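Our example pasted here:


***
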Amino acid sequence: MEKRSLKNSLIAATLALFATTATVTEADAQQVKNVVLVHGAFADGSGYKGLYQELTKKGYHVTVVQNPLSSLEDDVKATKLALDKQDGPTILAGHSWGGTVITEAGNHPKVAALVYIAAFQPDNGESTLKWAQSLPAAPENGILPPDDNGIIYFSKEKYHAGFCADLSQADADFMYASQGTIYAKAFVANITDAAWRHKPSFGIVATEDKAINPDIERNMYKRSNTKITEIKGSHVVFVSQPAKVAAVIIEAAKSVSK
């Protein structure tokens, strides 16, 4: 009787240990709650306000990088500095030119997955310009040749229709006024180690995009086996459809938290 009682006690203790271990393991599993957002050309980080609000109200810690837009190297450095400050695994998301930046910066050890928002996604040895010229531009596209300082601008007359047609005129005017200045040399810089070759990738096609031909986005994402979500919106779909863009980022976070 005593032996049976001792055996039952050992079984109960073992089961309790397994239950405790399972609970600890589940509690200690790393949930990706950090998001770093990288803006593109002809814009700045202020455009991410709506997306920031969507993500933070769902418990995500969001950092917005202010790219200097002076070169690919400088933008990658700014992004990596933001990643250094994260306290755990992070989703790295980039819009437009920011896609090229996260492709180079995304090999940072804290990056768990990449999200391309109507963004460029070059491969090793490829530049942004290569893909920008791979298909005809829309008539509304207002990107101008470099000026005497080597800076590229988006035509003010075409900015609303060609960059952010689904925003109000007032919002378009603010975006134009607050944009950074990007040097042409950034667009011809080649990728050295494409992070999408090593990290899970998610891509958003803005179906009404006039700044990047949506088929260019589709072609890049298909080439890399990126998971594609199509959202009806202009090039700044993250401004006009922040909840839908947030849903893709959250999907990426959950996919690497399992």
